[in-house]
Fold NAD(P)H-hydrate epimerase.
Amino acid sequence: MATGRFHTSTGTPVPAVTAETMRRVDRVAVDDVGIELLQMMEHAGRTLAFHVLRVGGGSALVVAGNGGNGGGLACARHLANREVDVSLVLDRDPDELTGAAAQQHRILQQMGVPTHVGPGFVSENDSADVVVDALIGYGLTGPVREPADELIRAVNRHGAPAVSLDVPSGVDATTGETLGDAVDPDRTVTLGLPKTGLRDRAETVFLADLGIPRAVYDRLEIEYENPFGRGFWVGLRA
Ligand SMILES: NC(=O)C1=CN([C@@H]2O[C@H](COP(=O)(O)OP(=O)(O)OC[C@H]3O[C@@H](n4cnc5c(N)ncnc54)[C@H](O)[C@@H]3O)[C@@H](O)[C@H]2O)[C@H](O)CC1
Ligand SMILES: [K+]
């Protein structure tokens, strides 16, 4: 199993964490320290949008699911606010979204961002400059099921560069194994701390700050040296 750490370009070591440890970090951040999930999601969506704009230009297709990785929905808002022509493709009917994903989606509806459901719409939008892969993150459980599997294959067939949120959808965040189909992105924007499963992957990995303070890592005895310097994201090497 992949373990160990990454380094920033200036040599700062950054511990890699399993999905289980990251879930614990999130829990302490929310339950003990009082940072809301939506606050973290906003940072995720904004930094993801920054990287999407580096890859693509005029139009973006955002593929999203119902979990925390639905931070791609916040990204869609930030892109649309920058005059990017954004379309959304979900793995389920919008009425089936819950929690933070439902809340983010309601905002997109107010903005008039078009929502489609299912893989057919990925190929129909094949003129998009960039695909945002926000379908599944560290919450992947077992081999990818329908309809996510078909969506993932459609993203890979699309041809435009893909930017994955946290981990490429279909990749086990802890082991790096692909459980069935997995998105093959140009870059991955991972959140808070890099996941162990990203260590041996070929694409470029960037780490986005979620605003999680050192106190959270201290409580969990995770050795943490600020990797961001005075910035809000950083490139990583294994
Ligand atoms: N500190 C952080 O890293 C933070 C990360 N955030 C983001 O939240 C996700 C994790 O969120 P979670 O709700 O636990 O799960 P996911 O969104 O990854 O997955 C749920 C989503 O995926 C579907 N799904 C799961 N397994 C399968 C499968 N085998 N086949 C098909 N579909 C599957 C499920 O139905 C849900 O739709 C993390 O990666 C980050 O992106 C937080 O935003 C903030 C802190
Ligand atoms: K993803």
